[in-house]
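Hi R.,

As promised on Friday, here is the backbone we talked about, encoded as structure tokens. Could you run it through your design pipeline when you get a chance and send me back a sequence?
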């Protein structure tokens, strides 16, 4: 395509829409920009108000930094307004959507979208999250530690590990019943450390009363586990985090419970058998599950240890999310005041054969949460394409493996986590190109309203994945590339506890990514810590990394470049996995920039470049190089 097309850009931010969150009846100004000398005769905005096609002519509004802005007025008459652009030259009409520019009429899946009813949690796009697996982070109160043999679960006894730096037991050895003593007081004591690192939000894996170390086998949603310090410890932690300018979100599974949960209570281990559904056919909790007349019940994935919750029950809806004292509302209220929820296995929630309630329940859950805190964040576990839930009425973000973590790990040569579960697929060693990476990122984002681009939760490590740096085939340079990629995407970045400390681990099981935080190690001087400390500071310092648009400037073979930009701030990241040195053309003029702002990039690497025409530079890249630099404007 012609070079001027590389400069065509619009999005749903305030730079290109006069009010990104309009009300019905309002008229907004929509802008599109390109090189000021682009051979364009006419531009039209194409929308479909009330189902009828409308083409609104745009006019040249202004010029700035070598770019011309075309603009038009767009009345907002529906809750969802979709549009794309027709760009007419003398001999061709180009069609521009969020995904791409074509010379043929595009489908509407990738249209630009404005929403009137979506309340964006505005703090998220500014955030750097730090995910903590509480049992393995810090022991602040040894007096509440689990003792060896204190209790059993599924026939396995609790095991108190002797030393904080002991290697976690494999599942076959410990059955998730090996404990180190991490608790909420320990997290509170480490708030100064988190501030020093640059973290602005904390995501905790489950903290509710449960027998295992991971706490996903919850016994009671209404109480924090006493071995974590109980309800009071959570209130104290939340208060301390907020006093230090940090947000807090909690993790919960409302799709199923364990058989020992108070509502089910199969064997009466933790609660009297007079409570719960299994032994009491006339109890209100009986309707919370799928039972037949013979007392058989439905288990998630047919697992008898995980009875599925039945949301045809109005009483269940009331106690989980709808009632004033429901589970979700309790923890949003004082004295806990959490700032959002992460929902475990949200992709399968309320989807049970003929009983498909997912898209009925999520809007109800969202409404209930937003009644308590309009700025609460709704984060959902989904590993795949979940755009259907990301249109403003249900989730704010998935755990963005699909558009971030799975993408960058595959780019650096790892087998895809899901495909690697099938030996025949795992055996195929695919070489993923930069073009593939760009396509995978954009096929996710381009289906979403831009307001939800800004709330994406970008990660590549978590409690459910082997740590990238524990893979011996991943170099330090490539880890740096993965971390920079994560911070270059729109939305929030999430650091999994210990990644900055180059924590030990294995890549063959979940237990391998849940090692205790190595507080005995002087890790502040290690490469990972310096990297994350710098990236956190840069996100805070540069509006482009928090509020800006995003555009791929280059994607070819083993190298890609992403620009983040506002009208006055431009950051460019260039990431290569190539084994050989190369030169890449970067069209900085496409984002209003002239050249890199200094001899070194923002992470201290020397830049070698030369001009290539009016709008580009040639950047010389060493093998596996990663550069992150700010730009002088044109």
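Update: got your reply. Pasting your designed sequence below so it's all in one thread:
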């Amino acid at each position: 395509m012609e070079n001027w097309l590389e400069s065509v850009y619009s999005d749903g931010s305030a730079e290109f829409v006069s009010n990104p969150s309009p009300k019905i009846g309002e008229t907004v100004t929509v802008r599109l920009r390109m090189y000021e000398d682009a051979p364009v005769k006419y531009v039209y905005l194409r929308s479909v108000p009330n189902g009828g096609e409308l083409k609104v002519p745009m006019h040249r509004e202004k010029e700035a930094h070598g770019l011309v802005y075309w603009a038009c007025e767009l009345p907002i008459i529906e809750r969802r307004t979709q549009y794309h652009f027709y760009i007419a030259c003398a001999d061709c009409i180009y069609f521009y959507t969020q995904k791409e520019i074509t010379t043929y009429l595009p489908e509407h899946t990738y249209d630009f979208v404005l929403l009137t009813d979506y309340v964006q949690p505005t703090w998220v796009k500014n955030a750097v999250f730090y995910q903590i697996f509480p049992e393995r982070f810090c022991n602040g109160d040894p007096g509440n530690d689990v003792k060896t043999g204190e209790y059993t679960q599924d026939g396995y006894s609790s095991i108190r590990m002797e030393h904080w730096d002991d290697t976690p037991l494999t599942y076959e050895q410990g059955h998730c019943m090996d404990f180190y003593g991490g608790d909420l007081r320990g997290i509170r004591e480490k708030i100064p450390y988190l501030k020093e690192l640059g973290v602005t939000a904390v995501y905790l894996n489950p903290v509710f009363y449960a027998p295992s170390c991971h706490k996903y086998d919850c016994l009671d949603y209404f109480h924090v586990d006493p071995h974590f310090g109980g309800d009071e410890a959570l209130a104290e932690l939340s208060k301390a985090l907020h006093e230090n300018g940090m947000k807090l979100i909690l993790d919960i599974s409302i799709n199923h419970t364990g058989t020992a949960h108070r509502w089910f209570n199969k064997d009466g281990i933790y609660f009297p058998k007079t409570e719960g559904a299994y032994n009491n056919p006339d109890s209100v909790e009986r309707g919370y599950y799928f039972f037949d007349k013979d007392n058989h019940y439905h288990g998630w994935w047919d697992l008898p240890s995980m009875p599925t919750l039945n949301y045809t029950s109005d009483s269940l809806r009331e106690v989980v999310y709808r009632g004033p004292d429901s589970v979700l509302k309790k923890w949003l209220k004082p004295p806990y005041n959490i700032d959002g929820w992460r929902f475990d296995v949200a992709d399968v929630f309320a989807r049970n054969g003929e009983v498909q309630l997912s898209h009925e329940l999520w809007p109800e859950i969202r409404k209930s949460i937003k009644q308590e805190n309009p700025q609460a964040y709704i984060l959902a576990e989904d590993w795949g394409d979940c755009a259907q839930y990301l249109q403003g009425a249900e989730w704010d973000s998935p755990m963005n493996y699909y558009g971030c973590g799975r993408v960058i790990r595959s780019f650096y040569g790892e087998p895809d986590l899901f495909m690697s579960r099938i030996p025949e697929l795992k055996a195929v060693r695919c070489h993923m190109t930069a073009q593939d990476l760009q396509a995978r990122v954009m096929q996710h984002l381009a289906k979403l309203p831009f307001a939800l681009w800004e709330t994406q939760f970008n990660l590549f490590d978590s409690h459910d994945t082997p740590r990238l740096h524990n893979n011996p085939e991943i170099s330090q340079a490539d880890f740096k590339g993965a971390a920079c990629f994560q911070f270059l995407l729109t939305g929030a970045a999430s650091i999994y506890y210990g990644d900055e400390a180059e924590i030990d681990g294995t890549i063959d099981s979940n237990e391998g990514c849940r090692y205790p935080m190595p507080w005995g190690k002087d890790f502040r001087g290690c490469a990972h810590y310096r990297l994350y400390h710098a990236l956190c500071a840069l996100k805070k310092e540069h509006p482009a990394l928090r509020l800006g648009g995003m555009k791929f400037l280059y994607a070819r073979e083993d190298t890609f470049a992403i620009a983040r930009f506002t009208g006055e701030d431009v950051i460019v990241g260039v990431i290569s996995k190539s084994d050989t040195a190369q030169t890449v053309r970067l069209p900085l003029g496409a984002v209003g920039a002239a050249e890199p702002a200094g001899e070194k990039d923002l992470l201290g690497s020397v830049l070698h470049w030369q001009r290539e025409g009016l709008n580009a530079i040639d950047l010389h890249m060493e093998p596996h190089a990663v550069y992150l630099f700010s730009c002088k404007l044109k």
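One thing I noticed while checking it: The CA atoms of residues 235 and 304 lie 34 Å apart.

Thanks again,
M.
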